[in-house]
Structure formats: structure tokens, C-alpha cells
């Protein structure tokens, strides 16, 4: 149903038109009725009328002023004025405000019905034209998407169909260069952000290719100037994505002539993007990139299996440390995404295997990384997944026995410097029997109470020897040994060196 506003200050005329007209017959909803132009103007934004029928002479805001206001705010809205014979010449001035038609008062029901029939037909024609235009625009956009997508396909025919060539013919300039990004998700408002970047780099086009690539095509006539604008546009694009909390790498292709040259530039940008993946930077295509890149097949680079097994053992900090080392290797050596991808996919599979089906279903989708975009995003995803696994492990292991072992370790850590610390003190604190504690603690630490306490004290002693100038007797006192001689004897038995020898060796 079309929306219509009826604006008339004469109550009798207004009520007669509103109540005695079959509005639905002509495709109109019941009219929004107003006594004067000011009332109508205040409700334009609310009603969004397709048609405004207004008297020309009214208090506060006359019909001509209302027509002008409607045209300024809603140029597609049809305005019809009602006027008396004496006002006819005045009404003619409304033409400049694109008034569609006028009726002389008094208006007969037949005349008014004919007006509504004509208005309905006009609105219908406009809808049809708009529909055809929209479909044409959509078809053109689909063709352009196919064209720009084909630029990235190495197996696509080298000779582009004429229709697809025409789709890219709107590019200005003799030369074209491509900046290409691969964000993990399509950020909200990226179309508007990308268009702003294109305007800054003009002449340029911004394209979203499906749910994957973000492409900026910059045109010009001089290579150095073109590449400088392309690099600036890439930096702007990266900044816009970061503002939307999206981390991505960007690859840039070289400058080439004509529409056909776009394919070369786009594929170079895609190649550079593969190396930019690990650095998270904006990277210009260089044929020497492959030679300059490193490999993950080295002894100092942790494997996916090692990280997964460490995580499974419950050593969360160590697993995170190994993960950090892996990503550092990728970043420093600028490893191509094709080498990173299988390692990261294997890590994902191994880590996910430590979770039950139910736990996997409860895990947020982004916890499982897809190594197709910037390394920083993948790193964050992997760390979130590791954290989730450790959380699940903690919940699974939070049994009375596990809590007892954990409390015992915490108590010893807080009281190891007390030379009077004995097992009965710990048993009293925990409220458990000696036999139960021995079993639980051995399962938790792999050591007896005495072994664990002694080893902890020795590690603390090493720290003091390395990091302070304290005397042996001072260290002994600080780690729970009442007898310095016994401390030195114990230290030598554990390390093969006296405290003095150890300090000298660590200098």
C-alpha cells in the first residue's frame, strides 16, 4: 500500500475527502490527515509519504512552502496541490518545486478518484523502472565480481570474455596495481570503509570478492607515483581493518598496463600475500621472496605434536611457551602460508582431539583457527583454544584427590622456608591420613613429601646463589635449613657442587 498525506485547513473538505474516498481501491493506505503545512512537515520523516495532497493556502506553512520542503527532503515524493480559481496563477509557480498536478476546488468525487487512479499508475510505473534498474545494477555487479575473482584464478582462461573485459573497463588510467587482503571475517561496515580508501587513492576501485579477498585496484599513468599511491592505500586499508578489530596481511602487485595486466598484478599480490601472512605486514611482490624465506623444518622450531603432547600433560605454561616459539619462527623466517598451513592444521586437529565431542560443540567457533589469514589472528585463536583445553582439563581433574594434591603443593610453596615444616603439619592442614596423602601426592608430583620439599628448597637456593650475594648461612636460613653445614652437604649431594662452586660456575 502506498502512503499518502492529506493536508487541508478546511475541516469540511478535509473530512469529506478522508471519509468518502475508497483509498484501498487505488492501492493507498488510509491517509495521514493534517490541518496545516507545519503539522505535515513535522511528520514527513515518520510517514515517508509516496504522495502529498495539499491545499495551497494555509496558516503557518502554505502549500507552496510545503511542496518546496518535500522536494528538498524527498524528491521522489509526488505533490499535488488543491487551489481555488483565484489562486490559479499563484499555483503555477509551484512548477519550479516539481509539483506533479493540481486540482481546482471544489473537487468532485469523480475528479478525485481519477487523480488517485493516475497517481497509482505513475507510482506503479516508477516501481517497475526501479526494479529493472536494480536488476541491471545487480547483474552488472555480479559480472564485475566474476571478472575480479577471475584475476586470482591461475587456471582461468588467459583471454577474458568480452563481457568480462567490459566489466573492468571502468578503471581509469593506463596502468593498474592491486593490493590484496584476506581478512578472517567480513568486518561490519567494510564496504563504506573500503570506499573511503578508494576515494583517497582515486582513481581506484574497492572490491569485496565473496567472503574472502578484499581488493583495492589503483590506476594511474606513471609507475612510481602509482605504486606510492597503492602502498598508501594498502596502509589505509589495513588501518581501517584494524579499527574494525580485524588483523590481516596485505600483498601488493606491480603496475601493469590495461585490463589484461590486472591479472598479473592480482596474482603477484596473491603471491606476496602468502609471505605477508607470517609477518602480518604490507608486502610488495618480489621475485626473490621465495629465496629470502625460511623453513619450519629446523631443530629449534617446536612441532605440532610436541605442543599437543605438552598441553595434554597439563603443562599449560610450557605449551603456551612452545606455541609462542612456533609463531616466532614463522614470523622471523617469513615462512610462506603454504608451509605454515599444514603445521597449523595438524596442531588444530591434535589439540581438538583432547576435547570430547560435547566440549567441541560448546567451544566458540573462532576457537578453531583457519590458517588462511594473518598469523596474528591464528596465534590468538590457538591460544584461546589452548586456554579452553586447559579449562576443560581443570574441570575434569577437579576431584577431591586433585584438590588435595593442589592444596599440598600450594602449602609447601608458602611454608618451605620454615625449618620446622614437617609432614604432620601438612596432614593436619589438609585433614587427611598419611597413607591417603602419600598416594595422592605421588600421583600429583611423582615424588614423596620429603623429595619434593628438598628439591624445592634446592631450586630456591640456586636462585639466591645466582641472583644475590648472600652468604651460605643466610641462604640456608631463608630456605628452611637450620644447619648451614647440613644445607651445604645436601646441596652437594643434589648438584655435585658446593654452593660456592655453583655460584662461580654461574657467573
Describe the model.
This protein is α/β, with parallel strands linked by helices and 507 residues long. The protein has 4 domains: 4-125, Rossmann fold (3-Layer(aba) Sandwich); 170-285, Reverse transcriptase/Diguanylate cyclase domain (Alpha-Beta Plaits), CATH 3.30.70; 304-396; 400-506, Arc Repressor Mutant, subunit A (Orthogonal Bundle), CATH 1.10.10.60. The protein has helices spanning 11-19, 37-42, 44-47, 63-73, 88-92, 109-150, 162-167, 190-200, 223-243, 258-279, 289-292, 304-312, 316-333, 337-352, 357-362, 375-396, 400-415, 423-430, 434-445, 449-467, 472-478, 484-495, 499-506, and strands at residues 4-7, 32-34, 51-55, 78-83, 101-104, 175-181, 204-209, 213-220, 250-252, 256-257, 282-284. Strands 6, 7, 8, 9, 10 and 11 form a 6-stranded mixed β-sheet that branches. Strands 2-1-3-4-5 form a 5-stranded parallel β-sheet, with helices on both faces. Helix 20 (449-467) crosses helix 23 (499-506). The longest helix has 42 residues, at 109-150.
Content of β-strand = 5-15%
CATH class of the largest domain: Alpha Beta
Q: What's the helical proportion of residues?
A: 55-70%
| CATH level-four homologous superfamily name of the largest domain | Response regulator
Ranges where pLDDT stays below 50 over 5 or more residues in a row are: 133-139
Average residue-wise pLDDT: 81
Computed structural class: alpha/beta
Query: Multimeric state of these chains?
Result: single chain
Number of strands: 11
CATH architecture of the largest domain: 3-Layer(aba) Sandwich
Rg computed from alpha carbons, rounded to a whole number of angstroms: 39 Å
Shape: elongated
Count of alpha/pi helices:
23
* N→C terminal distance: 89 Å
CATH domain fold name of the largest domain: Rossmann fold
How can the largest sheet be summarized? 6 strands, mixed
Give the total of domains: 4
Amino acid at each position: 500500500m502506498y502512503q499518502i498525506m492529506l493536508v487541508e485547513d478546511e475541516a469540511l473538505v478535509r473530512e469529506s475527502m478522508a471519509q468518502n474516498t475508497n483509498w484501498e481501491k487505488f492501492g493507498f493506505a488510509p491517509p495521514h490527515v493534517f490541518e496545516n503545512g507545519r503539522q505535515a512537515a513535522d511528520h514527513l520523516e515518520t510517514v515517508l509519504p509516496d504522495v502529498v495532497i495539499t491545499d495551497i493556502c494555509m496558516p503557518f506553512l502554505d502549500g507552496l512552502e510545503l511542496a518546496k520542503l518535500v522536494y528538498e527532503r524527498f524528491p521522489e515524493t509526488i505533490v499535488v496541490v488543491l487551489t481555488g480559481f483565484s489562486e490559479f496563477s499563484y499555483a503555477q509557480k509551484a512548477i519550479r518545486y516539481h509539483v506533479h498536478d493540481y486540482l481546482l476546488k471544489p473537487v468532485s468525487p469523480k475528479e478525485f478518484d481519477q487523480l488517485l487512479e493516475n497517481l497509482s499508475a505513475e507510482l506503479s510505473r516508477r516501481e517497475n523502472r526501479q526494479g529493472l534498474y536494480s536488476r541491471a545494477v545487480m547483474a552488472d555487479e555480479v559480472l564485475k565480481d566474476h571478472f575480479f575473482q577471475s584475476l586470482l584464478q591461475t587456471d582461468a582462461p588467459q583471454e577474458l570474455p568480452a563481457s568480462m573485459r567490459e566489466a573492468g573497463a571502468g578503471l581509469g588510467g593506463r596502468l593498474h596495481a592491486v593490493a590484496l587482503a584476506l581478512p578472517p571475517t567480513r568486518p561490519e561496515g567494510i564496504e563504506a570503509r573500503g570506499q573511503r580508501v578508494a576515494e583517497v587513492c582515486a582513481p581506484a576501485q574497492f572490491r569485496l570478492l565473496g567472503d574472502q579477498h578484499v581488493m583495492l585496484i589503483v590506476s594511474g599513468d606513471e609507475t612510481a607515483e602509482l605504486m606510492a599511491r597503492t602502498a598508501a592505500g594498502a596502509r589505509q586499508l589495513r588501518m581501517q581493518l584494524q579499527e574494525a578489530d580485524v588483523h590481516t596481511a596485505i600483498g601488493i602487485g606491480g603496475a601493469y598496463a590495461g585490463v589484461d595486466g590486472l591479472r598479473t598484478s592480482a596474482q603477484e599480490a596473491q603471491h606476496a600475500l602468502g609471505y605477508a601472512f607470517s609477518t602480518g605486514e604490507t608486502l610488495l611482490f618480489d621475485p626473490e621472496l621465495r629465496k629470502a624465506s625460511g623453513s619450519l623444518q629446523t631443530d629449534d622450531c617446536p612441532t605440532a605434536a610436541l605442543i599437543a603432547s605438552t598441553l595434554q600433560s597439563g603443562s599449560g605454561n610450557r605449551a603456551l611457551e612452545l606455541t609462542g616459539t612456533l609463531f616466532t619462527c614463522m614470523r622471523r623466517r617469513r615462512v610462506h602460508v603454504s608451509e605454515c598451513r599444514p603445521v597449523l592444521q595438524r596442531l588444530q586437529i591434535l589439540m581438538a582431539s583432547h576435547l570430547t565431542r560435547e566440549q567441541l560443540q560448546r567451544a566458540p567457533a573462532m576457537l578453531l583457527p583457519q590458517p588462511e589469514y594473518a598469523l596474528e589472528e591464528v596465534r590468538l585463536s590457538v591460544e584461546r583454544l589452548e586456554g579452553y583445553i586447559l579449562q576443560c582439563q581443570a574441570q575434569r581433574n577437579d576431584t577431591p584427590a586433585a584438590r588435595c594434591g593442589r592444596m599440598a603443593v600450594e602449602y609447601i610453596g608458602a611454608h618451605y622456608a620454615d625449618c620446622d615444616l614437617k609432614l604432620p603439619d601438612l596432614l593436619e592442614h589438609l585433614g587427611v591420613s598419611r597413607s591417603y596423602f602419600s598416594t595422592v601426592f605421588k600421583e600429583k608430583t611423582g615424588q614423596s613429601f620429603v623429595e619434593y620439599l628438598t628439591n624445592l628448597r634446592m631450586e630456591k637456593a640456586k636462585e639466591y646463589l645466582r641472583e644475590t650475594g648472600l652468604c651460605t648461612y643466610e641462604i640456608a636460613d631463608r630456605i628452611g635449613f637450620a644447619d648451614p653445614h647440613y644445607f651445604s652437604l645436601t646441596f652437594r649431594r643434589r648438584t655435585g657442587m658446593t654452593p660456592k662452586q655453583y655460584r662461580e660456575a654461574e657467573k
